[in-house]
Amino acid sequence: MPAARGPLRLPLHPAGFTRFFSSCSVIVFRFRTPMNLFDLGWDDFASKSFHPFCSGDLVPARVALGHKHACELLSAHGELLAECTGRLLHETASHADLPAVGDWVAVRLRPDEPRAGPASRRRADIHAVLPRKTKFSRRAAGDGTGEQIVAAN
């Protein structure tokens, strides 16, 4: 029986992340820190969309992985583990208006909370989803006529 090997590290990808394969052939991405917003796709459209939020202590971040009401984000502060605020969940008209992979969001960092997860990520609250330029969507599963956003940018 061959000895178990650790992750096979591949060269640094131009977008700024290291890609490696685990023993079960699942692709895992771990981003280096600090990150540059421009490497994540920040442009004039995102900058203009974020302008109403720059007066407070909100920072821009990009959704890398989405769960039901929580997301893993990439920002100038590194990787973040974030949850949607109650206000955002209440004010959204449909599930399609919540953050999806590729969306830019306005987040507030939680400074006094311990870091979460094995990667010691900072925690944050998602206060707003910035307008989308494009989206990849489909009809939501089930009998409803809702839309499911698969990815956005």
Terminal residue distance: 45 Å
Cross-sheet strand order for the largest sheet: 4-5-6-8-7
The helix-and-strand class reads mainly beta
Taking all Cα atoms into account, the compactness measure Rg is 17 Å
Number of helices: 2
Mean pLDDT value: 77
Order of helices and strands: EEEHEEEHEEEE
Percent strand equals 35-45%
Largest sheet: 5 strands, mixed, barrel
Outline: globular
Helix percent reads: under 10%
Low-confidence stretches: 4-29
Overall number of strands? 10
Could you explain the architecture of this structure?
With 153 residues, this protein is mainly beta. The protein contains two helices and ten strands. The longest helix has 7 residues, at 44-50. The protein is globular and about 45 Å long. It starts with 7 loop residues before the first strand and ends with a strand. The relative contact order is 0.15. Mean pLDDT is 77; it is low at 4-29.
